[in-house]
């Protein structure tokens, strides 16, 4: 990225040599990104990240296809980029169904089938939940929607780079990705939109990205994203195994230190990089403060709602609004730069903090 900032400063929409040089860099990145999900180059729209990609998928497709119907289906556990887009569409007359979430953290394909109507124009269900790490039945949903008019969008931000992904095999029409989730630069991502998908731009200006997303492209960030994609694809299997080992080590230490906890969701349908734990008798805010003071970075939900101590909307969808798990749960995640030493140190500190804060007065460890 540093090299491109200095040497490839041209506008990729310009026809002079500097512009053509920038365009070449961007075209190569688009090919890399498309190949990573089995898509065509022209089906990749570079965005400012996952949020814009989600907004474009929901609002752009809804506005372009309202002649076919006004019904949209999402889940109650979606990222706020999808939830808020759906709420906006509701405010202008669209009908939105929010599918419930089972206690295991998955949506039911049967519930989706029952919610479908001949007015449904879009179904948006995330691939992997960002708070629990639960993998959703995307292939089964794609099969269900194969002969329906509704477009199928999945927010794959948390799955991309960890799971093998082919848009045709998944049966999706649109798919959102963010660069920073695979250690790429922040502020860049993409929306895959199958070439027949009708999308109305949600911004106005130039005719970049095949008239779907106006604005001069961030060439350096796109090149950085390309490199991150190449590394993620190369190291995917190795990282999967590493994260699985990290999670096993982390949980074993907590158990050995007699920490009282429960895993939110079904561990058999969960990505290796995330674990969401409920600590009975604990207070989320107090835990997070103590973790931070000990050098541990964790969260009670999505980083996009940091600073909020409201109960997790994901856990509320799973367990109900009165369940304590919505208020005493913490999300831990593992990254490619973590080491076993990091995991051991964090787990030991967490065990000490949790046991100290949840022990009865007079029996403080």
Automatic annotation (TrEMBL):
Signal peptide region: none
Catalytic activity, reaction form: (sulfur carrier)-H + L-cysteine = (sulfur carrier)-SH + L-alanine
Transmembrane segments: none
Keywords noted in UniProt: Iron, Iron-sulfur, Metal-binding, Pyridoxal phosphate, Transferase
Pfam entry (one): Aminotran_5
CC cofactor: pyridoxal 5'-phosphate
Domain Aminotransferase class V, residue spans: 1-344
Top-level lineage group: Bacteria
Matches recorded under InterPro entries: Aminotrans_V_dom, Aminotrans_V_PyrdxlP_BS, Cysteine_dSase, PyrdxlP-dep_Trfase, PyrdxlP-dep_Trfase_major, PyrdxlP-dep_Trfase_small
EC numbers on record: 2.8.1.7
Family, similarity comment: Belongs to the class-V pyridoxal-phosphate-dependent aminotransferase family. NifS/IscS subfamily.
Protein name stated in the entry: cysteine desulfurase
């Amino acid at each position: 990225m540093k090299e491109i900032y200095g040497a490839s400063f041209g506008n990729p929409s310009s026809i002079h040599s500097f512009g053509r040089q920038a365009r070449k860099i961007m075209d190569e990145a688009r090919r890399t990104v498309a190949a990573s999900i089995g898509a065509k180059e022209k089906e990749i729209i570079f965005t400012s990240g996952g949020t814009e990609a989600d907004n474009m998928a929901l609002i752009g497709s809804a506005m372009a296809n309202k002649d076919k119907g006004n019904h949209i289906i999402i889940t109650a556990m979606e990222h706020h980029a999808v939830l808020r887009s759906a709420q906006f569409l509701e405010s202008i007359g669209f009908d939105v169904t929010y599918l419930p979430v089972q206690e295991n953290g998955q949506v039911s394909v049967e519930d989706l089938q029952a919610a479908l109507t001949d007015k449904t124009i879009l179904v948006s269900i995330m691939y992997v939940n960002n708070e629990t790490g639960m993998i959703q039945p995307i292939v089964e949903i794609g099969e269900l929607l194969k002969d329906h008019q509704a477009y199928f969008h999945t927010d794959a931000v948390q799955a991309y780079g960890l799971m093998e992904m082919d848009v045709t095999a998944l049966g999706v029409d649109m798919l959102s990705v963010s660069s920073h989730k695979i250690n790429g630069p922040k502020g860049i991502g993409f929306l895959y939109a199958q070439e027949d998908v009708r999308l109305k731009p949600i911004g106005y200006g130039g005719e970049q990205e095949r008239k779907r997303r106006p604005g001069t492209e961030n060439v350096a960030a796109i090149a950085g994203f390309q490199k991150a994609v190449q590394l993620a694809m190369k190291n995917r299997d190795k990282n999967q195994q590493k994260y699985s080992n990290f999670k096993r080590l982390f949980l074993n230490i907590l158990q050995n230190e007699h920490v009282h906890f429960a895993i939110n969701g079904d561990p058999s349908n969960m990505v290796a990089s995330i674990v969401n734990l409920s600590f009975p008798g604990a207070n989320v805010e107090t835990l997070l403060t103590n973790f931070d003071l000990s050098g541990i970075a964790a969260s009670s939900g999505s980083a996009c709602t940091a600073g909020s101590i409201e109960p997790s909307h994901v856990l509320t969808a799973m367990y109900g609004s009165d369940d304590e798990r919505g208020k005493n749960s913490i999300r831990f995640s593992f990254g490619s730069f973590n080491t076993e030493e990091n995991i051991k140190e964090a787990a030991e500190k967490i065990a000490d903090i949790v046991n100290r804060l949840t022990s009865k007065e007079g029996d403080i460890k």
